[in-house]
Design goal:
α3 (about 65-75) crosses α4. This protein has one domain (about 35-165): Putative neuraminyllactose-binding hemagglutinin homolog like domain (Double Stranded RNA Binding Domain, 2-Layer Sandwich). The protein is about 40% helix and about 25% strand. It contains four helices and five strands; from the N terminus they run ααβαββββα.
Length: about 180
């Protein structure tokens, strides 16, 4: 009886070892992106706001929205529409504060958040975040340096979106 149990256990272990490469192959295959992200032609840009200290950078409370809008328009990938109802995808820009460790303290860092939203369901399909600066430093004392960091962060958000959408659109499986 003991020999039969050992044989069954051995057989079970051998079968599980044979399936291990298949499980590893599945784990390394990237999950698909929501199709709207890759196929969108028309976008609506939404300003979700945020609390950016206006003493930190020059401009007004719409600076992030205006610069992001101009960058997306200059990219030329999308047709910008005036209503979410006319869009395939909503690009919602906002300023948030993400806590980061600074030595023994946790400090909130201002960041741009770009949410890619399905206008039909209002579900966030993807979110991209970019810190305005990685670490505060003496260079950030001057307003022109803070403005430069602001501009660079907007450009990084747009570059993140470009990289995300650079993948090929999913093939239509009509089986």
């Amino acid at each position: 009886m003991l020999k039969i149990r050992l044989a069954v256990v051995s057989l079970g272990m051998a079968m599980s070892l044979l399936s291990l490469p298949a499980l590893q192959a599945q784990a390394t295959k990237p999950a698909p992106l929501p199709s709207q992200i890759l196929t969108a032609k028309k976008v609506f840009i939404s300003n979700a706001g945020g609390l950016l200290d206006l003493k930190m950078v020059s401009g007004d409370r719409r600076r992030d929205y205006n610069q992001f809008y101009a960058a997306i328009q200059a990219w030329g990938r999308y047709e910008l529409v005036a209503s979410p109802a006319d869009a395939d995808l909503v690009l919602q820009i906002s300023i948030i504060y993400i806590p980061r460790g600074m030595g023994t303290e946790v400090v909130p860092f201002p960041s741009f958040r770009l949410a890619l939203i399905d206008p039909k369901t209002n579900i966030a399909l993807w979110v991209l975040d970019e810190f305005l600066v990685d670490r505060p430093g003496l260079a950030m004392i001057r307003e022109k340096n803070r403005d430069k960091a602001f501009d660079e962060a907007i450009n990084r958000v747009v570059d993140d979106l470009k990289a995300l959408t650079a993948q090929p659109a999913p093939a239509n499986d009509s089986k």
